[in-house]
Amino acid sequence: MELIAEPILDLESSANATSVLTAAHDWWNNTDVNLDVHMNCSRTFCPTDNFTNGTCVECLPDDVGNKYNLPWWNELIWYVVFMGMVIVATGGNTIVIWIVLADQRMRTVTNIFLVNLSVADAMVSTLNVVFNFTYMLNLNWRFGFVYCKISQFVSILSICASVFTLMAISFDR
């Protein structure tokens, strides 16, 4: 049985709604079904499809909540792993950039391409990974709508820069 639900609530008029009457159509039996789903719209995050009136809104059913809460010791392990990864990635890429740009003999075409890869990786580790990790643990985007867009842009920009730089290195060879 397949239910396709469509909300009957205008989120622009009530951003902190407490209940939503949802109309669904049961395509298997060809009947309409009304479902009463209680929603909690006080949490915010940043998908563009829920963006209304300058604020990001996420609606989760009250009884579901965050079913992915981790125990404190598990979160601590994730913090240590991610912070170690960010420190190594940022530090290592910064050292590569510094070595190539500081020594005149190191400025070959291949090394300039490697600097470009290092810049792209450093951008991801400093401007994207930390903020997305915080969002993944809390399921709450706390950094505003503008930085949400900047973070997405940096992610796509660095992927494109890495791919095109690797292509350029292979063409250069």
Round the Cα radius of gyration to an integer and report it: 23 Å
> So, the CATH homologous superfamily of the largest domain?
Rhodopsin 7-helix transmembrane proteins
Q: List the strand order in the largest sheet.
A: 1-2-3-6
Average pLDDT for all residues: 74
Subcellular location: Cell membrane
Membrane topology: Multi-pass membrane protein
GO molecular function: tachykinin receptor activity
Keywords: Cell membrane, G-protein coupled receptor, Membrane, Receptor, Transducer, Transmembrane, Transmembrane helix
Describe it for me?
This protein has a four-stranded antiparallel beta sheet, with no helix packed on it. Strands 4-5 form a two-stranded antiparallel sheet. Residues 5-22 and 35-46 have low confidence and may be disordered. It contains three helices and six strands. It is elongated. It has helices at 72-102, 109-138, 144-172, and strands at residues 3-7, 19-26, 31-40, 51-52, 55-56, 60-61. It folds into two domains: 3-61, no CATH class; 72-172, Up-down Bundle (Rhopdopsin 7-helix transmembrane proteins). By secondary structure, the protein is α+β, with helices and mostly antiparallel strands. It is 52% helix and 17% strand.
